[in-house]
Write a structure and sequence with these properties.
Elements (H helix, E strand, L loop, with lengths): L19 H11 L4 E4 L3 E4 H17 L7 E5 L4 H12 L3 E4 L6 H11 L1 E7 L3 H8 L7 E5 L12 E4 H7 L14 E7 L7 E6 H17 L11 E2 L8 H4 L1 H8 L2 E4 L5 H11 L3 E4 L1 H9 L11 E5 L6 H9 L2 E8 L6 E4 L4 H4 L3 H8 L4 E2 L4 E5 L5 E2 L7 E6 L11 H7 L5 E9 L5 E6 L4 E3 L2 E3 L1 H9 L4 E11 L3 E10 L7 H13 L11 E4 L13 H14 L4 E3 L1
Helix pairs in contact: 1-9, 2-3, 2-6, 4-5
């Protein structure tokens, strides 16, 4: 066994622990007068922000919140949420970011499972909260969040209204030091079956993730995305993996931050214009929603840098955004990974190549960020070669990956089988170090003894000028096992049937991109593709819908 010198705790006593409070204290050091903006309603400086975090800590402490308690938040993206992301873990409590797009039953399950003791509820969600209030088993007190100070709510054990309580609280708080391995945040990720699963992250993990994310976003020249002079507006919900952790980066660097509340496309465009936003991040469907809204028409979004994650970035969306002045960059991660794992990087060799080749690499999942180790694993637990061709499950190691699922030892063991975190994604790794996600294991289409990538097929179909949005799934076939089925949303004034789609895909067959069995023999033209609570394609729901349509012989099915 390797003999190393370990520093005894007595010698290590004066070492400052890695705590979220140190990220907060850094921000105002750089830019005290920079602003935190909430919609078109409120703005204040970093100095005021720090005071508000201290006031919130005093409110929570006075209400009885203790270290180790779980405090839940039900809110849209706001300055209040940002304050909670700091104040709650900084007093030693655990922040539970509730996915308000889940069903009431799922929210109830997550709150009881997380053992929430204190809940901050936006007035818009009071009705939802009241519907489950009587079944909550651990909640002791509530606090009302509202954009209208005069608004009240009939909530059990209500402490008061957020702004009123903050105004009466002290603007100073002596945030303590404690073990950096203390849990800071938790939230629930939904799968295809069973109840949502709770992931959790420590102060140490979040600080290390913040430092790594800042180094990639600000230091890698080919994708330099976020520096101290940028203006940041998240378009990924703050309840979803801490808005990908970027609010922590922005606050650490003292960057101007713009919080849009509920995602209304016209408001997002207005804020982009008035606040001069330069950096955002979102899933592909949200960006499409913004580009297609009325306010966005005929606008040049030049200077807007946007990270795309959550779902694959296809070439059609990349080119469409580029034509509107937006520089898209693909990144990869998941709820269990805090989330950042990789980000697109164009090295010197790729810079010397063609624009088409650079685009190919800009839309891949990217190169692992510092401190992340990646590998491919076969079903037997053996590691596979990283040769750009061999496919296997992508497995990971990094200092900030969740240690397991809260109170679910069996699922935690499955997540970390063979000592690596299992992503459930089929991928390749190449000589450049790029991760190329081929599909989710459960979404790979198995036809005629071969595997087809639904992501690759979606990318090729999306290049048809009539296609605004596409989802591809495998459906049962008595002869081939499965066949691909395409769900299409068409652009206004365009038409497309299964035969027209076949003609579009034939050149890709001839070029060797896909085989002929990858051409869907049946498609459906719809007005909307089902999405999950965080804006990803809901392929479980899509499969169920297709089965019902086929059984009913729906008229919008088109068959070769």
């Amino acid at each position: 066994m390797l003999q190393t010198r370990v520093i005894p705790p007595t010698e290590n006593a004066n070492q400052a622990p890695l705590l979220i409070k140190r990220l907060l204290l850094s921000g105002s050091r750089y830019e005290k007068t920079r602003e935190i903006v909430y919609r078109d309603q409120l703005r204040f400086s970093y100095a005021t922000f720090n005071e508000r975090v201290a006031r919130l800590a005093n409110v929570l402490t006075a209400a009885g919140v203790k270290a180790g308690d779980t405090v839940a938040v039900m809110d849209w993206d706001s300055h209040r949420y940002l304050e909670c992301m700091f104040a709650i873990p900084m007093i030693g409590a655990v922040l539970h970011t509730i996915n308000i797009r889940l069903s009431a039953d799922q929210i109830l399950y997550t709150m009881n499972h997380a053992e929430d003791k204190f809940v901050l509820v936006n007035s818009e969600f009071v009705g939802l909260y009241k519907s489950i209030e009587g079944q909550l088993t651990t909640v002791e007190k509530t606090l009302l969040l509202t954009d209208e100070a005069s608004k009240t709510a009939d909530l059990a054990n209500l402490v008061g209204e957020y702004e009123g309580l903050l105004a009466a609280a002290s603007p100073a708080y002596d945030f303590p030091d404690f073990d950096e391995n203390s849990v800071a945040t938790t939230f629930y990720t939904t799968g295809t079956t069973g109840n949502p699963k709770g992931v959790y992250f420590t102060h140490r993990q979040l600080v290390l993730h913040t430092l790594a994310e800042a180094s990639v976003l600000g230091s890698v020249d080919s994708v330099r995305l976020l520096g101290t002079n940028d203006v940041y507006m998240p378009i990924t919900p703050m309840f979803h993996v801490h808005a990908w952790g970027i609010p922590y980066v922005a606050t650490m660097l003292g960057i101007k931050q713009v919080y849009p509340g509920r995602y209304e496309p016209d408001m997002l465009v207005k804020l982009w214009q008035t606040e001069k936003v330069t950096f955002s991040h979102c899933v592909p469907t949200i960006l499409q929603m913004v580009l297609n809204c009325k306010s966005a028409q005929n606008i040049d979004f030049g200077g807007w840098k946007v990270i795309i994650g959550g779902s694959a970035l296809n070439r059609a969306l990349y080119e469409a955004a580029k034509a509107r002045g937006i520089q898209l960059t693909a990144a990869y991660g998941m709820s269990e990974t805090c989330p950042l794992i990789s980000c697109a990087h164009i090295n010197e060799e790729l810079l010397a190549g063609s624009e088409d080749e650079r685009t190919t690499y800009r839309i891949k999942a990217g190169v692992p960020v510092p401190l992340v180790e990646t590998a491919l694993m076969g079903p037997d637990g053996q590691l596979l070669p990283a040769d750009g061709e061999t496919q296997g499950e992508l497995v990971l190691r990094a200092p900030w990956l969740t240690m397991g699922y809260f109170n679910e030892p069996q699922k935690s063991a499955e997540l970390w089988e063979h000592g690596w975190l299992h992503t459930g994604d089929v991928a390749t790794l190449d000589d450049f170090g790029f991760i190329d996600i081929r599909d989710r294991i459960k979404d790979v289409i198995k036809t005629g003894g071969e595997w087809l990538s639904s992501l690759e097929l979606e990318d090729l179909i999306s290049r048809h000028p009539a296609v605004r949005e596409v989802a591809v799934v495998g459906i049962p076939d008595p002869q081939w096992g499965e066949r691909p089925f395409a769900l299409l949303v068409l652009r206004d004034g365009h038409e497309l049937d299964a035969r027209g789609l076949k003609e579009h895909l034939k050149p890709f067959v001839e070029q060797g991109n896909i085989n002929k069995w990858a051409i869907p023999s049946q498609i459906a033209i719809v007005t909307e593709v089902p999405k999950t609570s965080v804006g990803k394609l809901d392929k479980k729901r899509i499969r169920l819908d297709i089965a019902q349509w086929q059984a009913a012989g729906s008229a919008f099915l088109s068959t070769l």
